[in-house]
Amino acid sequence: MSCEGISRRELFRRGGILGSALAFPQLLAGETAAAAPPPVAAPAGVGLRVGPDIYQSIGVRPIINARGTYTILSGSTMLPEVRAAMAAASQHYVHLDELAEAIGARLATLTGAEWGLVTSGCSAALTHATAACVAGGNPDLHIRIPNLSGFAKDEVVIPKHSRNVYDAALRGVGVRVIEVTTPAELEAALGPRSALVYILASPEADESALPTKLVASIAQPRGVPVLVDAAAEILTVPNVHLQSGATLVGYSGGKCLRGPQAAGLLLGRKDLVKAAWVHSAPHHGYSRGYKVGKEEAIGMLMAVEMWMKRDHDAEWKTWTSWLEFVGKRVSAVDGVTTTIVQPKGLSNRMPSLRVFWDRKRFGLGGDTAARTLFDGDPRVGVFAARHETDPALTGVSVNPYMMAAGDEKIVADRLFALLSNPPHMDETAPPVAAAADLSGQWDVKVEYAAGASNHALNLRQRGNEIDGAHRGDFVSRDLTGTIDGNSVRIRSFLGEQSGDSIAYTFTGKVTGDEMGGTLDMGEYLGAKWSARRRAARRG
Predict the structure, then answer these.
(1) % of the chain with per-residue pLDDT over 90
(2) Phi (first) and psi of residue 144, to 5 degrees
(3) How far is CA 506 from CA 104, 457, 479, 512, 529, in A?
(4) N or C: which end of the chain has fewer CB within 10 A?
(5) Tens of pLDDT along 333-374?
(6) Nearest-CA neighbor of 241 among 252, 254, 227, 253?
(7) DSSP character at residue 434
(8) Residue, of 41 and 500, whose pLDDT is higher
């Protein structure tokens, strides 16, 4: 599988490592974790400077984004019309209830949905929608969330294909999740306590035993709403999910729509969308932290207005021309091939350029190439890619979605320079004989930015290879690793079967019965770890 147009679900399914790799591509495809590049030194005594170098003025390096609309890379850039609308909105005061009412009506006109609401992101839209389905517009219930004791409805049904890290937005309301895999299980799960059914929009969901249309045909007659998470999708009018029977659908504002990054949309049934506003800031209660300013609200509305006016065919042709330019430039390097791939589904919908070469001949893997481009200057973000049929080929994927005019020349030049004179960074020597046998049980202390916890490693070593189990604070997960001399690297992953995704990469040194070093936790940053071999019990 290649990495172009990678979905939100795939992002976390592939070891959780990829979530961190969006920021630090050295974690892709088995690369040894390394520290992030040091920030640019900010000019002494200058402080924040408004202008083209606003980020450099405080020591942050901007990125030429040839990956896509990922939040860790700050989503998308706002349209000029959105920026202008937000600036104009910032000059006046309004009553936010009145603003929500006016925007809700306008969104209904634009999208064909019964009503609309601007939220502080798609995740917030899911949270407010869940609260609306649990508590309606009842403030006596609202102020008790997330303690749902005594509530008539406190269950959310989720098809197994839709379990993902983003369903934490629903769980945060305090609901109990019931997983189902078949229509019969769905029918059995729906009852008087069912608040809603949640679906993560994806080709996988469409092709499953429980697609949205079938789920809606079972849930709606029982009075159970269906909520679809379409965060990274293009906005379809008429809405494809509402037409399939969904009750509510959420979108990110800072992705395809190119609205404010800290904004999103909830569209659908009028009474529930209006109830969702009750469960949103500035109203007090659990949702006070989900604040949407008047500027973001107007900016989000303008993004939808512009979505209806944008020439999407012309945008597609422009993206394709950029990819053709990059492809022509890098294809001049002997041994490099390129192809433009068309997207599947509605999420992060764009054409993509795949650039491939022979890993052994170039001495360079796609993962290392992506890291080199990201660490260099200008800083270019691309995905590593794997060839679907030839394991000898490696490469990168260039996605034009969030590129700006002129970026294609920089991307082409950086790739051409790298592949014309590859650094042969992946020509590694065979591992050194292990300095110790790590087999056995180890007590581990992890020191976070604040606080610490005790973990355990149960290791089995065969030569330079390690496998076993890693016990965290609550659950165990399988691990794999290597020992090269006295250098140790161990990786474990908690998949998103339960809606969570955490990856751990322990790197360090072993000395006798002790080892320790640094711990990379993907999107949750880093920590320090130390371990001591557990003494065998005597009989």
Answers:
(1) 85
(2) -95, -15
(3) 49, 11, 10, 17, 8
(4) C
(5) 999 999 999 998 898 899 999 999 999 999 999 999 999 999
(6) 227
(7) P
(8) 500
Question: For residue 247, with 0-12 CB atoms within 10 Å meaning exposed, 13-18 middle and 19 or more buried, which class applies?
Answer: buried
Both structure tokens of 188: 């059995």
The distance of Cα 444 from the centroid of its chain, to the nearest Å, equals 29
Lowest mean pLDDT among 100-109, 345-354, 436-445, 456-465: 345-354
Alpha-carbon Rg for the chain in angstroms: 25
Edge-first strand listing for the sheet containing 393-398 = 337-341, 352-358, 393-398, 383-386
Tell me the one-letter amino acid at 50: V
Residues of each domain in the chain carrying CATH 3.40.640.10: 80-309
Q: What is the DSSP string of 393-424?
A: EEEEEE--TT--TTHHHHHHHHHHHHHHS---
Please state the pTM of the whole predicted model: 0.89
Is-contact 336 330, C-beta < 8 A? yes
CATH code for the part of the protein at 80-309: 3.40.640.10
| Ranges of CATH 2.40.128.120 domains, the chain | 440-533
**pLDDT tens for each residue of 469-501:** 999 999 899 999 999 999 999 999 887 566 778
Average confidence (pLDDT) over 271-277? 98
